[in-house]
Amino acid sequence: MSWDAIQARLTRRKTLAQIDQELDKQSSQGLVRSLTLFDLTCFGIAAVIGAGAFTTIGKASFDGGPAISLLFVITAIACLFSALCYAQFASSIPASGSAYTYAFVAFGELTAWMIGWNLLMEYAIGNSVLAFAWSSYFVNLLEGMQTWLSRIGLNFQIPQWLVQDYYSCSEATEQIAAIQAAGGTPSEELRRHLQAWESAPSLGGYLSNFKLIVDLPAILINILITLLVIVGIQESKRVSNAMVLLKMAVVLMVVLVGFFYIKPSNWQPFAPNGLEGVFKGIAGVFFAYIGFDAISTTAEECKNAQRDIPRATLLTLLLCTIIYIILSFTLTGMVSYQSLNVDDPLAFVFEKVGLPSLVGIISLSAVIATTSVFLVFQLGQPRIFMSMARDGLLPKRFASIHPRFKTPAFSSVITGLMVALPTLLLNSTFVTDLASIGTLFAFMLVCAGILVSDTTQPSSSGFRVPYFPGQFIVPMSFLGYCALLPSLPQNHQILGDWMPEGIFHFDRVPYAIFLAVFLGLSTASIQYRWSAIPVLGVVVNLYLIAGLGAENWIRFGIWCAIGLLIYALYGYHNSRYRNP
């Protein structure tokens, strides 16, 4: 086969007509269409108002002060670029698969495969992060309830080797030794890891050096949510809606009760650390928003996907932004921003103002909030597997629908196993970085896909990304970035010495790539008169990817190489579109 024929296969796109025909074929044996606009919006809120509302907001407030409310507005605008692009695709392509399907329409098979492969990091591997977080909140809740539980005869102590991850515990001895050698004091978390390592039983025999350490709560929540997802979309949406209503009630309680303890003097100074302090929390705040794309994975289970998914996506973004802004003003008004560098800011402020009775309720809400995010993400990945299998890029078994539950049960089980493996072998930091870069990569290509699909497969009906003249806005944004460049951190600079003391500055490479792409997009925007929104979506997501560092780019490159190998060995030969 000639190179031109291979290239034609790799870039062969799906048409909107093909997708409509495929949906008609699947309708008789496919998923149950039961989701309404309310259900979709609840899924979106469940995915966005999660651990961020109970953790990230505190540390971001510590860095930026009351001005952190502005960061939520700025981040919402940045997310809006991607959300609008998702909304246009969802309006014209009411199929499961999310960014995978959209990439197939815009770029073709190979890019679609790479998007689907990287969505594994957002959903399946990313859920491992949530499993770690859920375990931490659950254990904290149990420890906080020890006094009450002892009164009813349930006085017990959970062994640390049953609530920690193996990787962190295996590194604890060396890390503590290094800290003590430098005259520092190990953190409480590190001491817990060491305690788990020293108290854990060994397997004996040839495996005597292997300790039995497992984060049992993380494994159990994964099993329970996987079973719920398999049982059905109706049951999943009921549980999700109930959890959303419960955590919204807690947020409302926090705001209403906290209002009486607000001291306006705590809002002064408004931006104590300037813009640098405000933007220090941008990564954590941005990643609190990224769950909105999970809405689009349920397209084939919506009563009116073309109308409701765009509405739910934008409504989720609006409501969650308002909630985060109100919460940030409440927290920074109740106590000084300087005391908010804690993992549980909502519980902390009420204990600080003398209302410890509410701390238990808030801790329980943190568990519920994390569970709701876990559920939505666990719903998403099996439906992406299903779409890829329908196209022949994965074995047909992944596309099978359970005859009784009408869900992709096999794919759900595989997703559960993929969530479990990182919780057994890795720690949350490693998994978080991988999930983040995979998510942002998908967002970036969805935004770029709008630029391509508008010219190759224009759709006159449904939602459209509003047009703003990119030939003016994008170049001006590029010049504004260049003007700010001297005041940005050292790793942003492309001029100057790249090898101080003989050590190459690898962390400058991602930002150099970002600057080159930004310049290229500015030039293309002038030439092709692109809309500014999708272009700025590409820019924002690539900037955040650059901020994840050169080391994570290398890991991401390895992950993509593995994906390409699997595609070359299986997907390329079994694709339904293999005939050029």
Reported for the largest beta sheet, the result is: none
Number of discrete domains: 3
Shape: globular
Question: What is the assigned CATH homologous superfamily of the largest domain?
Answer: Amino acid/polyamine transporter I
With helices defined by DSSP (H or I, 4 residues minimum), what is the helix count?
A: 24
Average residue-wise pLDDT: 83
CATH architecture of the largest domain: Up-down Bundle
**What sequence of helices (H) and strands (E) makes up the elements?**
HHHHHHHHHHHHHHHHHHHHHHHH
Low-confidence stretches are none
Cα end-to-end separation: 11 Å
User: Could you tell me the radius of gyration in angstroms?
Assistant: 24 Å
Description:
68% of the residues lie in helices and 0% in strands. The protein is built from 24 helices and no strands.
Primary descriptors:
single chain, 580 residues, Amino acid/polyamine transporter I, mainly alpha, 24 helices
Quick gist of this model?
This protein has helices spanning 3-10, 16-26, 37-48, 51-64, 68-92, 99-106, 109-122, 124-144, 146-151, 166-181, 188-199, 216-231, 233-259, 274-279, 282-289, 305-334, 345-352, 359-390, 409-425, 428-456, 470-484, 509-528, 532-546, 550-574. By secondary structure, it is mostly helical. Helix 3 (37-48) crosses helix 18 (359-390), helix 13 (233-259) packs parallel to helix 16 and helix 18 (359-390) crosses helix 19 (409-425).
